[in-house]
Write a structure and sequence with these properties.
With 660 residues, the chain is an alpha/beta fold. Among the domains are: 50 residues; 132 residues, Leucine-rich repeat, LRR (right-handed beta-alpha superhelix) (Alpha-Beta Horseshoe). The chain has a 25-stranded mixed beta sheet, with no helix packed on it. The protein has a 3-stranded parallel beta sheet with strand order 4-6-8, with no helix packed on it. It has a 3-stranded parallel beta sheet with strand order 22-24-26, with no helix packed on it. β1 and β2 form a beta hairpin. The radius of gyration is 35 Å and the shape is flat. The protein starts with a helix and ends with a helix. Bound molecules: 2-acetamido-2-deoxy-beta-D-glucopyranose (NAG) (8 copies). One 2-acetamido-2-deoxy-beta-D-glucopyranose (NAG) binds next to loops.
Length: 660
C-alpha cells in the first residue's frame, strides 16, 4: 500500500471514536431483554445505539459493514455470539475485538474478505467457533492465528483452499470440528495431515473432487468422523486411509456427482483401516455379491440408503458385528430379499421409503432374534392380516414403525410375536380392526401408540384393551360415533395415559365423565374439533394440564368453569368464536389475569359483537357495571321521582277532601 494512502486510512481510523452515531429508523428485535437481539437485514451501516451495552447474542447478518475496526463493536463488550453473515465485509482491522473477552462464536460467512489484520481476533480469549464459509479464502495463512488456542470448530466450506496444510503455529490441538467442504483440495499428503494436532476430530472433506491421496496419508490418526462425499473413485480415498481409525466414515455421493460404481475391489482398502460406522449413500454397486461385503465385516453400522438395491446377495459371511443396517429408499419387492439371516446381530433395521410396494412376506426377519428397532414406514404396505407372520421371531422388538402404509387388517392379538413392544406407530395407515376386539392385547409394555389418521372407529370400547402401560396415545383424525366421546369409552382401559391427542376428531361433545379414569394426564390436545364450553366440565378432576382447546366452537365460558381452567398449567384457546360482550365479562377478566398461562394470546380474538371482531381478547375494554355518570343520573332521577310522587299524593288527598 502506498504511504499516502495508508496515512489517509490511518487518519480515517483515528477520527472514528467509540460513541454511537445517529441511529437508523429501523429497529432491531429484542428476543430476550438486554441480552438477545436480532438486527438482520435492516440495511444498517453501524451498530444502532438502541442496543444496550449488555447485549450478548447479536444477529447482525445482511447489513452493510464494508470495514470493521476497534470502534465498530466497542460498546458491546459482553458479546458471546456475533453473526455477521453477508455484511459485505472486506476489511477486518487491527484489534477489532480487543475488548470482547467473552466472544465464543463469530460468524463471518458470506463476506468477501480481502484483509484480516494479524491482531483482529486478539481479545476473545475463548473463541470456540469460527465460521469463515464463503469468504473467498484460498490459503490457510490468511487466518490470523493469535488467540485461537481454544478453537473447537472451524468452518471453511465453499472457499478456494487447495492445501490443507496448516501453518506451523496454527493451534489445531483442541479442534473438534474442521469443515473443508466444497473447496479445491485435489490431493492430500501425509505432510498435510501431520500439521493436524487434534485427535478425535470430525473432518469434513465433502465435494472436494479429491483425485489423489498419498497412501497412508491418514495413518495412525484417530477421527470421530470423516466425510468424503462425492468423490470420483472411492478406492483412492481408502488407500489414503490405510492404518487410520475412525468411528464414522461417510463416503456417499450425490445425484449431480459422477462417481464410479462400486466394485468389490474398490472396497478392499477397508480391510486396512478401522471403521465402526459407514455410509455409501446413493452409490451404485456393480458385481454386487457376497465378496462386496468381505472388508465390511468389522462394521457396527452400515448405511446403504438409495443404493439402487433390489436384493442383498445371499451367502454374505462374517457380518457378526453389524448392529444397525439402513436400507432406506431402495427397490425391494419383498422383505425376504434383504437376506436378513446374514446379519444375525442386528438390533436396528430401517427399510423406509422403499420405491415400490413392499411385501412383508412371512418370517423374513425370523433370524434377527436381537432386533430392538424396526422402521418400515412409507413403504406402501398392504397387508390384509398383519402382523404376526412378518414379525415372527422378533421376541425382543421394542420399536416398530409401520406408519404411512396403505392398508392393514388387524385381528385379535396382532402383535403377539413381539410382546416387548414399547413404541408402535401406525399413523396414516388405513386400519381395519375386527369389531369388538383389541388387536393390542398382550402388549403390557407399550408406552407410545400412534393411531393418528387411521380411519378407525374410535367408538370401539375394546380397541385399547391390553395396553395397561400406555402413556402416550395419538388418535388425531379418527372419528367417534355421533361426534361424541361418551361416558363409557376406549380410554377406560388405559388409565395411566399422560399424553392424549384427540385433535381433528370431529368431536361435538364430551361427556362429563368421559375422562374420569385418567388421573395422570399432563397433556391433552382437543384442538380442531367443534367443542363448546360444555365439554370443559369433563376436566374438573384434572390439574396441571397442558390443555389445547384451539380451533373449537367455544363462545362463552361461564364463571362456574373458570376454576377448572385456573387449575391447569397452560391453555390454548386461540381460534375460537369468543364472545366479548358483558355476558362473558367474568371470563374476559379471568383471561387478562391469567395471561401467563395462556398460549397464542395473539390469535385469541373476539368474534362477537361485530364491532369487536378480530380484537385481541387481552386488549378488550368492557364497561359493564354502572358508571359514575350513570349513578348521578339515577340519583337525580330518583330525587325528581320522589318529589313528583309527594306532589301527586298531596294533590290527590286535597282533591279527595274537596269532594267529600
Ligand atoms: C482504536 O484504535 C486506535 C488506534 O490504534 C486507538 O487510538 C483508539 O483508542 C482505539 N479505540 C478504542 C475504542 O479502543
Ligand atoms: C455503554 O458503553 C459506552 C462506551 O463504552 C459508554 O460510553 C456508555 O456510558 C455505556 N452505557 C451504559 C448505559 O453503560
Ligand atoms: C470424541 O468426540 C465425540 C463427539 O465429538 C465425543 O462424544 C467423544 O466422547 C469423544 N471421544 C473421546 C475419546 O474423546
Ligand atoms: C500400515 O501398518 C502396517 C503395520 O504397522 C505397516 O506394515 C504398513 O506399511 C502400514 N501401511 C502404510 C500405508 O503406512
Ligand atoms: C415413524 O416414521 C415416520 C416417518 O418416517 C416418522 O415421521 C415418525 O416420527 C416415526 N415414529 C416414531 C415414533 O419415531
Ligand atoms: C406418532 O406419535 C409419536 C409420539 O407422539 C411421534 O413421535 C411420531 O412422530 C408420530 N408419528 C408420525 C408419523 O407423525
Ligand atoms: C399414575 O402415576 C403414578 C406415579 O407415577 C403411578 O404410581 C400410577 O400407577 C399411575 N397411575 C396409573 C393408573 O397408571
Ligand atoms: C395453539 O393451538 C393451535 C392449534 O393446534 C396451534 O396451531 C398453535 O401452534 C398453538 N399455540 C402454541 C403456542 O403452541
Amino acid at each position: 500500500m502506498a504511504p499516502p494512502v495508508s496515512c489517509l486510512l490511518v487518519a480515517v481510523l483515528f477520527s472514528a471514536s467509540c460513541k454511537a452515531t445517529a441511529s437508523s429508523d429501523q429497529t432491531c428485535t429484542e428476543k430476550e431483554a438486554n441480552k438477545i437481539y436480532n438486527c438482520e437485514n435492516l440495511g444498517l451501516r453501524e451498530i444502532p445505539d438502541t442496543l444496550p451495552n449488555t447485549t450478548e447474542f447479536l444477529e447482525f447478518s445482511f447489513n452493510f459493514l464494508p470495514a470493521i475496526q476497534n470502534t465498530t463493536f466497542c460498546r458491546l463488550t459482553n458479546l458471546i455470539f456475533l453473526d455477521l453473515t453477508r455484511c459485505q465485509i472486506n476489511w477486518i482491522h487491527e484489534d477489532t475485538f480487543q475488548s470482547h473477552h467473552q466472544l465464543d462464536t463469530l460468524v463471518l460467512t458470506g463476506n468477501p474478505l480481502i484483509f484480516m489484520a494479524e491482531t483482529s481476533l486478539l481479545g476473545p480469549r475463548a473463541l470456540k467457533h469460527l465460521f469463515l464459509i464463503q469468504t473467498g479464502i484460498s490459503n490457510l495463512e490468511f487466518i490470523p492465528v493469535h488467540n485461537l488456542e481454544n478453537l473447537e470448530s472451524l468452518y471453511l466450506g465453499s472457499n478456494h483452499i487447495s492445501s490443507m496444510k496448516f501453518p506451523g503455529n496454527f493451534p489445531t490441538q483442541n479442534l473438534k470440528v474442521l469443515d473443508f467442504q466444497n473447496n479445491a483440495l485435489h490431493f492430500l499428503s501425509r505432510e498435510d495431515l501431520n500439521t493436524l494436532g487434534a485427535t478425535n476430530l470430525s473432518l469434513n472433506l465433502d465435494s472436494n473432487d479429491i483425485r489423489g491421496m498419498e497412501p497412508g496419508a491418514f495413518q495412525a490418526k484417530v477421527f470421530q468422523s470423516l466425510r468424503f462425499g462425492g468423490t470420483l473413485d472411492v478406492s483412492v480415498i481408502l488407500k489414503g486411509l490405510q492404518n487410520s481409525t475412525t468411528r464414522s466414515l461417510w463416503l456417499g455421493t450425490y445425484e449431480d456427482t459422477e462417481s464410479q460404481d462400486l466394485t468389490p475391489a474398490m472396497l478392499e482398502g477397508l480391510c486396512e483401516m478401522s471403521v465402526e460406522s459407514m455410509s455409501l449413500r446413493q452409490y451404485r454397486f456393480s458385481d454386487l455379491s457376497a465378496t462386496t461385503f468381505r472388508c465390511l465385516t468389522p462394521l457396527r453400522e452400515l448405511d446403504l440408503t438409495a443404493t439402487h438395491l433390489r436384493e442383498l446377495p445371499s451367502g454374505i459371511q462374517g457380518m457378526n458385528s453389524l448392529r444397525k443396517l439402513v436400507l432406506n429408499v431402495n427397490h425391494f419387492e419383498q422383505l425376504c430379499q434383504i437376506n436378513a439371516a446374514s446379519f444375525p446381530a442386528l438390533t436396528d433395521l430401517s427399510i423406509k421409503g422403499n420405491l415400490g410396494v413392499l411385501d412383508l412376506g412371512a418370517g423374513c426377519l425370523e433370524k434377527l432374534a436381537n432386533l430392538r428397532r424396526l422402521d418400515l414406514s412409507h413403504n406402501g404396505i398392504k397387508a390384509s392380516d398383519c402382523c404376526n407372520l412378518p414379525l415372527k421371531g422378533l421376541r425382543h422388538l421394542q420399536y416398530l414403525n409401520l406408519s404411512y402404509a396403505v392398508s392393514m387388517g388387524l385381528r385379535r392379538q396382532a402383535f403377539q410375536e413381539s410382546p416387548e413392544l414399547e413404541v408402535l406407530d401406525l399413523a396414516f395407515t388405513h386400519l381395519t380392526v375386527m369389531a369388538s376386539q383389541s388387536p393390542f392385547q398382550n402388549l403390557p409394555l407399550l408406552q407410545v401408540l400412534n393411531l393418528s389418521h387411521c380411519l378407525l372407529d374410535a367408538s370401539n370400547q375394546h380397541l385399547l384393551e391390553g395396553l395397561g402401560g400406555l402413556r402416550q396415545l395419538n388418535l388425531q383424525g379418527n372419528r367417534f360415533q355421533d361426534g361424541s366421546l361418551s361416558k363409557t369409552n376406549l380410554l377406560q382401559t388405559v388409565a395411566g395415559l399422560e399424553v392424549l391427542i384427540l385433535s381433528s376428531c370431529e368431536l361435538l361433545s364430551i361427556d362429563q365423565q368421559a375422562f374420569h379414569s385418567l388421573g395422570n394426564a399432563t397433556h391433552l390436545d382437543l384442538s380442531h374439533n367443534s367443542l363448546t364450553e360444555n365439554s370443559i366440565d369433563a376436566l374438573g378432576h384434572l390439574k396441571g394440564l397442558y390443555l389445547n382447546l384451539a380451533t373449537n366452537s367455544i363462545r362463552f365460558i361461564p364463571p362456574r368453569l373458570l376454576p377448572i381452567l385456573s387449575q391447569q398449567s397452560t391453555i390454548n384457546l386461540s381460534h375460537n368464536p369468543l364472545d366479548c360482550t358483558c355476558s362473558n365479562v367474568r371470563f374476559i377478566t379471568w383471561f387478562r389475569e391469567n395471561l401467563h398461562k395462556l398460549e397464542d394470546v395473539e390469535e385469541t380474538v373476539c368474534e362477537n359483537p361485530p364491532s369487536l371482531r378480530g380484537v385481541k381478547l387481552s386488549e378488550v375494554e368492557l364497561s359493564c357495571g354502572i358508571t359514575a355518570v350513570g349513578i348521578f343520573f339515577l340519583v337525580v332521577f330518583l330525587f325528581l321521582f320522589t318529589i313528583l310522587f309527594i306532589f301527586a299524593v298531596k294533590f290527590l288527598l286535597r282533591w279527595k277532601y274537596q269532594h267529600i
